[in-house]
Design a protein that fits this description.
The complex is a heterodimer of chains A (about 110) and B (about 110).
Chain A: E1 4-7, E2 10-14, E3 19-25, E4 30-38, E5 45-51, E6 56-59, E7 62-67, E8 72-77, E9 86-94, E10 101-103, E11 107-112
Parallel strand pairs in A: 2-11
Antiparallel strand pairs in A: 1-3, 3-8, 4-5, 4-9, 6-7, 7-8, 9-10, 9-11
Chain B: E1 4-7, E2 10-13, E3 19-25, E4 31-37, E5 43-51, E6 54-57, E7 64-66, E8 76-78, E9 87-94, E10 103-104, E11 108-112
Parallel strand pairs in B: 2-11
Antiparallel strand pairs in B: 1-3, 3-8, 4-5, 4-9, 5-6, 7-8, 9-10, 9-11
The chains are: A mainly beta (about 110), B mainly beta (about 110).
């Protein structure tokens, strides 16, 4: 089955700096890669996703890049703000596999003032 | 994701008792999923259902059971056979079997002592 690894497990940045979280996946059949943000005790919220036919996608301060050859994808947050502090999860979904998501283990992002 | 509800928010049970967690959605979504979240780990798939009266095991189905008698409801039973049932349980739904996007409910935190 699919295996998703996520790094780093914790990330601390100064307000206004950029943050980058990286994930790798194992199954080349994966074709959908979402990113979720989870605040303490809350539900995961889908913040951005990318499909395998696209190399990069942006939405305001967040962007995701995908390298299919290397089987890795990354989340980029620019101009970080305190409200960006949360746990971020990457995931991958295999084509035709019931659209099941395999999640990474999460990155605790802390944006310091 | 506002159309997915889970109840109760907190649930306490004694070891050896079965317990059923509720998940309801009014989004007319075909697919529904159950995940378990433990501290420091990503979400792990327990069961999923792509259509009424049909469901499949996920990665960690042992000790759990589900039913999908109605499109809007996908209850999860944690049985006494589940060795480590204490966890945060999240339900998700997706529009149809062609969609990858999953939207989560608020979760139920189950504590078994």
């Amino acid at each position: 089955g699919e295996n998703v690894e996520q790094h780093p497990s914790t990330l601390s940045v100064q307000e206004g700096d950029s943050a980058v979280i990286k994930c790798t996946y194992s199954d080349s059949a994966s074709n959908y890669f979402p990113w979720y943000k989870q605040e303490l005790g809350k539900r995961p919220q889908l913040i951005i996703d990318i499909r395998s036919n696209v190399g990069e996608k942006k939405d305001q301060r967040i962007a995701v890049t995908l390298n299919k050859t290397a089987k890795h994808f990354s989340l980029h947050i620019t101009e970080t703000q305190p409200e960006d502090s949360a746990v971020y999860f990457c995931a991958a979904s295999i084509r035709g596999g019931g659209n099941k998501l395999t999640f990474g283990t999460g990155t605790q992002l802390k944006v310091e003032l | 994701d506002g159309g997915i509800t889970q109840s109760p928010k907190y649930l306490f049970r004694k070891e050896g008792q079965n317990v059923t967690l509720s998940c309801e959605q009014n989004l007319n979504h075909d697919a529904m999923y159950w995940y378990r979240q433990d501290p420091g780990q990503g979400l792990r798939l327990i069961y999923y259902s792509q259509i009424v009266n049909d469901f499949q095991k996920g990665d960690i189905a042992e000790g759990y059971s589900v039913s999908r008698e109605k499109k809007e409801s996908f209850p999860l039973t944690v049985t006494s056979a589940q060795k480590n049932p204490t966890a945060f349980y999240l339900c998700a739904s997706s529009p149809d079997r062609e969609s990858h996007e999953q939207y989560f409910g608020p979760g139920t935190r189950l504590t078994v002592t």
